[in-house]
Structures are given as C-alpha cells and as structure tokens.
Write a structure and sequence with these properties.
heterodimer; A: alpha/beta; 8-stranded mixed sheet; 13 helices; elongated; B: two-stranded antiparallel sheet
Chain lengths: ~700, ~300
Amino acid sequence: MNFLNQALLWGLAAVSLPIIIHLLNRRRFRREPWAAMRFLKVSVEQNQRRMKLEDWVLLLVRCAMIALLALLMARPVMEGLSGVPGSKVAAAIIVDNSASMGTRETESTRLSLAREAAHAILSGFPGGTSVALAGAFHAHEASNDLELVAARIDEIPQTDRHADLQRSLEVAARGLEGQAASVKELYLVTDAHAAEWGSFGALEARLRDIAMGIKVHLVTVGAPVRSNLAISSLRPAATLTSVNQPFRIDVDVTNHGDVPMSAVPVKLLVDGQPEGEAWIIDELQPGDGQSATLYATLPTPGYHRVTVALKGDKMPFDDRRTVVIKAREEVSVLLVDGDPGQEARDSETFFLRHALAPVPEEEQTDYPVQPRIVSISDLAEEDLNRHHAVVLANVADVPLGFADRLSRYVEAGGGLIVFAGGNLRPESYNTLLHRKHGLLPVAFSTDDEDAVGPRTVVPAETNPLGLDSDLLAGVVFREKLGLEAGEMEYRPALRYDDGGLALTESEYGRGKVFVFNSSADLEWNDFAIRPAFVPFVNRLLGKIVQNREAGLNVEAGQVLRHRLDVGLAGRPATIYEMRDPEALGYLTTLAGGESSSVLKFDRTGRAGAYQVAIEGESEPLLFSTRASVRESSPELLGSEQLGRLGAFVELSRWESMSKQGSFGMERQGAELWWPLLLTVILFGAIEIVLAQWFSRSK
Amino acid sequence: MDAETRKLLDPRAIARAEALGMNARFIVEGYMAGEHKSPYRGFAIEFAQHREYAPGDDVRHLDWKVQAKTERYYIKQYEQETNFVAHLLLDGSESMKYGSGEISKLEYGKMMAACLAYLILHQRDSVALGIFDEEVQEYLPRSDNRDNLFRIMDRLAGFEPLRGTRLAPVLHGMAGQIKRKGIVIVISDFFDDEEELLQSVQHLRFKGHEVILMQVLDPCEIDFPFTGNVEFEGLEDLPLIRTRPSQIKKSYHREFEEFRERLRSDAERHQCHFVGARTDQPLDEVLANYLTFRKSAAG
C-alpha cells in the first residue's frame, strides 16, 4: 500500500485527540455536595460496568473514525488492485516533434506514427484521467477532457528544431509530481534520435529518478535511416549585394549516412525560381563534407529568398536551406576629407574613394557604391540620412552641431568610420564623440609611447572582417594614435603585431561604428596602396550596410529579434510562413525601444522563409530560419542503450496500429478513498447513534 | 455568665430567633386565620381572673355581666389545662445541610419545628424540643409557657450540624425518656437505616406515643436534575462518587422513590403519620395539608 499524500499521515496522531479529551473529561468533574449518597451509590454500582463499557466503545469508535479520516486524507493506494471507483490516473504524454520526427516512413512520417501512438495511449486511459500533453517544446495544461487532448494531439506541429528531451521530461514529471493520483504515467513517444538524448548518462539518471514515483513508458516510432545528405552551411560571400550584381554563395554539404553518395546535385533558387546550373558534388564519403559554390543575382532592390536545395531524402528538413538577402541599387558613402591637399592624389580620401569604387571614371556612375567627398566646411548643408555610411578621414575637429547630428544619424542605423591622421585632434573627438555621445567606444591618446615605429596588423581572433592575414602582413604602419578603452563595449577587429588595438567595431543604436587609429592615405602607412586595402574598405562598408539586416537569418526555434525604424513601434504586423501559402498568419505588434522598434517572433519552429507585412509599409520584410544541424545525424539509440533504459522504463515500439488497445492493460493500483469515505461516514453514524443511546438515562 | 446565656444574649442569635419566630407566627397565623378552630380541640379551659380592658383586647372576651354591674370593662382571662405534649425532634445531622436552592433541608426543618411549636404553644399545650444527629444535641424539656417559644427559636436558630445521622438510638432513647404519652414529631430526611428506624418508631408506638414522621427533602434529591460529569461529595463523610448523573437518573429515581414509598408504607403499617415536604414547597401549604388531614381524621 502506498499513500498519495504521505505528509497527511501525520494526521493519524489526531487519534490521540479523543483519548486526550476522554482523559481530560475524566479529570473535569463539577463538585456537588450531596446528602442522598446511599441511593446514588447503589445507582452508580448498578451502572458502573455498563458505563465503562459504553465509554470504551465510544472511545474506540471515535479513534477509529479519526484514524480512518487521516488515512482517507493521505489517499491510500492499493497496488495490484483495480476497478475500485474513484481511483485517479494522472498522465503526461510527450510527443517528440523535433526535426528528426519529420523523417519519412513507408506511408507517413515519424510524427504521424507518434500521433497514432498517442491516440492509442489516450484510448487506454479510464475516464476522468488527467492528461498533460506536450510537444518537445511546448506543454499544454493537464486536462480531464480526453477529446480535447485528442484534438491537441492532431495539432502538434512538425518542427525543424532540435529537441531537448531532458527539459521536456523535467516539465512533464514536475507536472505529474504536483498531482495526487493513484497511478501516474509518463509516456515519451519519440524516434529515440540519439542526438536528442544529448548526454545519455545524465538523461538516463534523470529518467531513473522520475521512474521512482512515476511509471515511465518509452514508445519508439520509426525505422533507422541509413543515408542522409544535409546542407550544413550556407554563406553569401559578398558583403554588399547589389541589384543585378552576381555574388558568390558558399554551401557545405555533409553526408551523415553510412553509405557513400556520388553525383550529388546542389541547386540554387532565388525567390523560389531555379538560378543557373546545379553544382554537382562528385562523391561524398560517409561523415565527409564538401563545399559547393553557386552564384546568385538579385534582380530587384529589396529582400530576396536565396535557397539551396539537395535532392530530397528520407530526412527532408536539412535538404533545403534559405537565407534572406537584401539587394540595393546604390550604396552612398559620404567621405569627409580632413586634408584635401593641393592635388587630388594628395587628398586624404583619394585612396578611399578609389577603393570604394574600383572602376574607371566613366563607369563610376553605374557602380553601386557612390562615394561623395566633402570638406568639413560643407557638412552643414549635407543631409546625412541620404548616405549609408559617413567616413571621417583625418578630420581635425568635430564641430559641436555636427557631432549631435552624427550621433542621431548613427543611432538611427547609419554607419561611421573614423580614420586617424596628423590633423586629428584627439581632444575634440574624446570630448564630443567619446564622452558626450558615447559614439566612439574608445578615446584617442597622444601619449602612446609606441605611436611611432614600423609595425604590421593582424586580424583579431574572430576576424570579423574575414581579411586575409597574408595580405595584411605586407602592410607597414609607421605611425598611429593610441586608443584607450573605456567602459563601453567594442570588439577588436584588427590588432598591431604588438597586440595594440588598430581597429574597433561597435554598435550605437541601430548603427555601427569603426575606429581605425592610422591614416587612410600614405601619411602614416602604406595600406592604401596594398591589395588588402580594397577588401578592407569594402568589408567595413559591407558590415555597416548588412548591420541593418543582421539577425534576419536564425536557427529554427530561436527567437527572432530584428530592429526597425523607431517610427514603426506599435504598428501591427502579420507574419506568414512562405512555404505554406495557405497557412494562417501570426499577428504581432512591433515593440518600442529607445532608438528603434523591435520585431519579436518566437514561432520559428519550421525552417524556411517568413514574410512580415507591417501595416503602412509597402515593402514586406523577409526573414528565414534554418533547420538545426544537430538533427541531421540519423543515428538512433542502440539496443544496448535501450536495454539500459528498459531496466526502469517500460519500452514499447509503435508501428502503425500494431499495439492498438494494448496501452493501459497492465495498469494496476487503486485508490481506496471511496471505500474509506463510506467507512468514515458509517463510523460517524454509529458514533452519533451510540452517543445518543449511551447518554440516555437508564 | 454561662455559654447558654451568652448565646441567648447574642444579638445576632436573638435576631435570628426573632426572625424565625416571626416567620413561624406569620405562617401559623395565616393558617389559623383561615381555620378559626384549633385542630387539637377537646382540652379543658378554665376561667382564671379578670383584668381591666385595654385598647387592642378582643371585645369578645369582655365580661358583659361585670360591665353591667360596675360599668367598667373587664376582660375574662382563662387558663387552659394542658393534656397535650408534643415532642419536636429535629434531625440536625450534616445531611440536613443540603440545599440546592435558597433554603436547606435543615432550615426548612427548623422553620417547620418553629411553626409547630408556635402552633402548639398558641393552644397552650406543651412542647419539648430535641435536636439530634447521632445523639440528642439540644433538648428543651416540655413547657406550655409561651415565653418558652423564644428559647425554642433561639435553640433552633443557633444550631449548626456537625455529625452524621443515627435516628434509631435517638428515638429509642426518647421512647425510654418520655414518661407522659404525647405526640412525637420527627422532622428529618430519614437517610438512615430503615430497619432500625422502624424498630425505634415501633418502640415509640409501643410506649403509646403518637408518631408523626415529617420527611423534608430537597427538590434536587427528588428530581436529580444533574448533567455532565459530577463529583458528589457526601455531607456525612462518605467517599466521593464520580459519575455522569444523566446516565443513572432513572436508576436513582427508582431507588429513591422506592425508599420514600417504603417509608410511607412502613409508617402507615405502624400507624404513624407520614408527611412529605419539599423545601421548594410553601411551609403553610404543607402544614395546612397535614392539619386539614388530621382535623378530618379526628372527626
């Protein structure tokens, strides 16, 4: 026998109450002087035994009643007994709906089989059972309405996410532990995909703990798959994607199966339409990965879906991957020249302009990057918002009014690149842009003892610009300004060979800021005439331009947080899954922030492109999600591992309708509160009758 | 000055005695006013002397013949010849102390004795008073002097019970002591050995006394209305009895009523009068009932 509310067994101590009351009553006598003692004595002697007997009987009945009441509250369960009315079953069914559950079986998918199994489990519960249904990522409240639960089973969606089964088990077990029921059952319906069991030992230990108080059933579905080709990476090589300008896409394909694959076609689709010839991977050995190179052209300005697809296999979620890329007709850069010089070549921005538009003069009009050079005195008339980035090249002082405009511009999403030089006066930058506005995360220093001296630069550890260190190695830096880091956040992008900061990258509002402490001309280095300079300048610009689209490509299940213009805050938006045109859209509202509005969306379970229609905006926003690569391995739990789980978990395998009606057959254990309640009522009635009867005068 | 005298002179004792006397007179005269005739008629009454009329004297006793001769008003005074001796024996044991209401059985008994004494002396008969427990504690020899009434009242008022009851030896003693036949009135609860009591009554009867047993009981002793857990403490040094009275009520009633019935029937069997009284019953009503009964019995 077991008790569902064991703590209430302490209530058995209340059995002492009638005894205590009895003993106290025996001590509590009202004293009465009396003369007719002999008649009293005779009467007492005649009734003494009967009264004692009645006292004992009443005391026993009362003690028994309280003991039974305490037992009733503790809800005893008799194992091995069934069919007693009032016995309650509490159950949780977890239906794994991770990406691997989308694996194709003979007639359906693993998730379809799992749904069938869940229905069969549900039909095995007695009426009144409290059932909590959960997917791998979302749990419903427990319900006694089994029809509702059945409907929810059919609504469990297929996702392309990686499942954390331990977390799902924890949630379900906690829910069950909180319920008072004679029988507690936890069903995990899964394909036993090895990757989802993470650390098998930890999960096994946790399952063992759960199985101490809950009957755990592991219902496996699906047959093993031997081959699976997966797109494990998709990277657009270009940082600036312009209309009708072809750009390279690097794709990694991995063979997760145990059979070699040959002549694997890798196709490219732009906005759902095939683009160019498929790339063919000749041979792919088990466990190996190979890269494919594809070229895409975006025909119009705006957001485009670029999809790479393999030939579909049994695990389809990783056979396609889509990224969203925004194409621009023109990228405008404002170059503020701090040292125009006598001739064009002497100008501080000469090399910058050519690096940004590295084409002959006559072709520059059609070139997507449009640099515009101004002097510091012309800035007052310049509309900064027309430009994607502003470059301050060896500008001596930052005018007060311009500093204010510049901070507002960057905050709203603009880009700022600062190049040092002999004219730059650190006090002006440090006072206005560093300390006042916090636009520059670092302060310039003239006290740097190592300011002068030949040195080279190397990419920082993460190489955010993706620069070739060999190309950088040939650049000689003769002079620089010191950079002093404050409390503001930044990332080093380039360092000198002595470890000193050369280039920092930071965010300001929606915009991005780069600070380079050497010159953009040949005054302090020979960078401008080295091959590394053009990609360096373009990647700085590319990072600034792409910054606005950062975060538009996330992994399935991740929460999308994308910053938009502050003016869009509070506007309603509808999000559609583009792979399913008939699917209903999700309604949301853009949240407000300090300098931007934020689109937040957490229903990113399926991989693919999503379209966001924001009220009042003519052009929809696109974003994409990718399936988790952790789901691509087809490996399932082995028989040895299942055998270990079988020591404390009920293992069963579900094949279509194979075990219909078999769940719940072994369920035993009945709660005894109903018969106990009847007994308590009976004892209560007996107590009342006896108390009345015994108190009658005799 | 002996103790007796001191007691008599005790202002509080006097007040108590006066209060008792006044109470008895009030009760008896209330009864007499309704009856106008003594229930103990047939005793000789002889003329004694004349005395001059004073305001307030009963005009019925005016001697009209003397008035006609002397034109002065004289009242005839008589001397009643006494042939009736009443022995009032009051149980002064501790059991008589019991009283659930305003008055205890002893107080009621004292009142009853006082009333009877007043009544009897009022008729110029003799009254002797004995207060007893295990033995006679107080005794006033017979006297027909009305002034004796105050002494009777004083003795009654001043008596405080100290011991248990032993009726039979007392009655046996009285039977041996009293030479002249008379009426022996025993006022008690009779919570004593019934057999011995009857023998002593028989002894009194044998000596030619008329015996009247006046049983004084408290209503609670008859009704036994107690509830809950009660520890009964015997008034005559009997051990405590703890019980739940409600559960033995019937049994007690049965025992008690049987006792009363036995007492009544035994009294009748020995040609004694038995008068039952409850302390919540007006005393004049008890006396009236009994005296009416007696008058009718006397013819």
